From TrEMBL, chain A:
Topology in the lipid bilayer: Peripheral membrane protein
GO MF: ATP binding; ATP hydrolysis activity
Pfam families referenced in this protein's UniProt entry, alphabetically: ABC_tran
GO cellular component: plasma membrane
InterPro entries, per the entry: AAA+_ATPase, ABC_carbohydrate_import_ATPase, ABC_transporter-like_ATP-bd, ABC_transporter-like_CS, P-loop_NTPase
Name listed for the protein in its UniProt record: Sugar ABC transporter ATP-binding protein
Organism: Streptomyces sp. NBC_00119
Domain ABC transporter intervals: 12-248, 258-502
Amino acid sequence: MTHPEPETTPVLALEEVSKSFGAVRALRGVSLRLYAGEAHALAGENGAGKSTLIKALAGVHRPDAGTVLLDGAPVEFHGPADARDAGVAVIYQEPTLFPDLSVAENIFMGRQPRRSLNRVDHRAVKRAAADLFARLGVDLDPDQPARGLSIADQQLVEIAKALSFDARVLIMDEPTAALTGSEVARLFGVVKTLREQGAAVLFISHRLEEIFALCQRVTTLRDGALIGSEPLEGLTEDDLVRRMVGRDLDELYPKQETEAGEVALQVRRLTREGVFTDVSFEVRRGEIVGLAGLVGAGRSEVARAVFGVDRFDGGEVEVLGTSLKPGAPSVAMAAGLALVPEDRRAQGLVMDMSIERNIGLTGFAETTRAGLMNRKAERSRSVDWAVKLQVKYARLADVVGTLSGGNQQKVVLAKWLATGPQVLIVDEPTRGIDVGTKAEVHRLLSSLAAEGVAVLMISSDLPEILGMADRVLVMHEGRLTAEIPRAEATEETVMAAATGRTKEGSAAA
Amino acid sequence: MTMTAQPVRSESAPRPTASRQFIDKVFKARELAVAVVLVVMLLATQISNGEFLSEQGIKDLLLNSTILVLVATGQAVVVITRNVDLSVGSVLGISAFAAGNYLQSGGNSLIAVLLAVALGAVFGALNGALVSLGKVPALVVTLGTLYVVRGIDSIWVGSRQITADGLPSGFVDFGTNGISVVPYLALLTLAVLLCVGYYLRSYRSGRDMYALGSSPEAANLAGVPVRKRIMTAYVLCGALAGLAGALYLARFGNVDSATGNGYELTVVSAVVVGGVAFTGGAGTVYGAALGALLLTSINSVLPALGVSSVWVTAINGLLLLLAIAVDRILALRVAAVLRKQAAQMRSARHD
Ligand SMILES: Nc1ncnc2c1ncn2[C@@H]1O[C@H](COP(=O)(O)OP(=O)(O)OP(=O)(O)O)[C@@H](O)[C@H]1O
Ligand SMILES: [Mg+2]
């Protein structure tokens, strides 16, 4: 059975919409129709214009040309509030929360339940937030301030926010990028219910299998232009990739076989009180070690402690034989360690600096002579890496904040790879990166390993872990619960360890 | 593939409420700390100088602080939205003169007060418009209006002066009398403080102020009417500065072109000492009021202890630095507690 375009009027639609930012034509005459009860996927490479399209639907951007139609009638949204009042709920690609306010207030800002005299009913706000979290199966305290939440938890708050009102249209820009299987399954369950109740859904993800699992129709963009809009039934992942990229894709996990060499990173009984306990492992030269686990298992926290962003309370970290002081990233960098952090906005990039300067930040030692910076050296170093990672930009002097999400991620990678590390820790290296570039990043990691770099890769994308890692370490609730060699690593073994279904003690250091 | 895993997060892990409450306390402790310092300081002074907390002493203390508390309340609202209003001293001065000038020509007391409030609100609206429309930092904009308003004031007032004998006696009495030790001015200020505090806590538009200060970008996406709220904050701040001008006139009866000069720095210090984050989004007007009370008290405590008043400025500065240090330490403590709490939650789920 195929899905022809329904005869009914779309709930929300774009007709021939164009939008430019200076010389960048982010959207060129794109049309899109969202129908009640249908989940619609939006596919395209990094910088194809997906987020821009969403912002045009949500009233954040005013289109330069073309119209937005609500129930078939042209509307003009003057701001996000207008779109919201029309029943459009949006989860933006980058979580935007109020760090000082409680999670509950974050969800209901501007729409708080009220009691007599129009006063905000703080108790009802809290209760409603707790209900939402229960529905999503999430352990978050509604009273907790949003400051310090992990990216995944921030994304969950954003999801709760979007689900908190009876939306007629639910728009989600890569809501799953930092989530693991179980949270994704929950989210999809909730979305499916909403869809069956008649909501229209627009969904963006670079994980193609998610698109197939959730959606009925897909619209593909390339360089801001519409490639096509068609039912998903009958399409394969390869078809979708071909539409997005315009060519067939090589292998997604180009893993080179390497010989493991001497131990490069040795972690012994590392403990940070209340975060993780007694974590021991080693990474050898030439190895890619995957670190898997559910959101909140403490993976990023271990990485941060190893690199010295956070202090640790007990244990030892050794890089190539030198033992590291707790809480001293500059010492770690000097020892040859690099960390590509999880949160690109807060930890990875200086958002209002140029691409060039951002990549240059880690290279002062190379590009500085007698205390003076050599801007030319910085520029050529930046160009090299930006090109290697296929960052899509107009000029190197462009502010990083205006890049698309995936391209920002590439800049973070470039920034750290440019330091020529001996031990590389990457935290969600391909979060928000399109399939084409994902393969490129994998190839890069693999060739680094082949050159003798020790790589520790944290990822919530299980196929990525299985495809790339020589060994898989699994964390569960702050402890290392398993170490699985490549040959035995399957979805089942890793998930069993990640959810604590294996006996403890199977971990070997 | 990624979504075949079973949902595993338990739905109702027990929540460690004890540490939650501790965090609440720590946040409130910021205001509590100021209150404790204030009380200890007053008691210590009283012990070494029995005259200090006499009926007149208390009355003076309250009278002296009311005006600062009032202006600090308005300023706190602006600072919570991640802005600042440096023109409050000038606005206070010009409103006080306007009210006095009107009263001297035989005007009605109530109308004089309303006139001062309205004038303040107009200048507040001007600030608000400049800050929210032009994309110029509030610090720069209000530094500009500080000088502009002061300049207008100087031209208008010249070498004239308002003195108490030109004012209606009822008005002057209102400025000095009260119910037993509590002056009318203090009661009025308290009423304003409670209203503004309640508004910020319990109304959507009040919560918007915090949202705006915490993350302007997120506020915009959440549909907060950013310009309108900034406007409201500045109008409120200006109106309260105007009201403070009228109270100043009632209290001192003496206004010239230099009235309120340099006041803005004291006000901003009071707000920061009281725990309102200069980066916006956090703090309460009650904290700001306590900060104002603390700064004013030091002015009276030092003379009572026989310390030369030249020390006052230095000590105010020291308090400011201390307040910022305390904030930082508290932030670290809170982070540690949150971590422990997460751990407890995890082990609770584990069992
Ligand atoms: N505010 C802005 N100013 C300037 N250029 C912008 C702005 N927002 C987006 N762009 C540009 O528009 C193009 C499309 O960006 P968009 O964010 O829509 O991509 P995307 O499809 O969402 O990519 P990704 O998968 O990486 O999130 C990019 O080239 C980007 O640099
Ligand atoms: Mg995007």
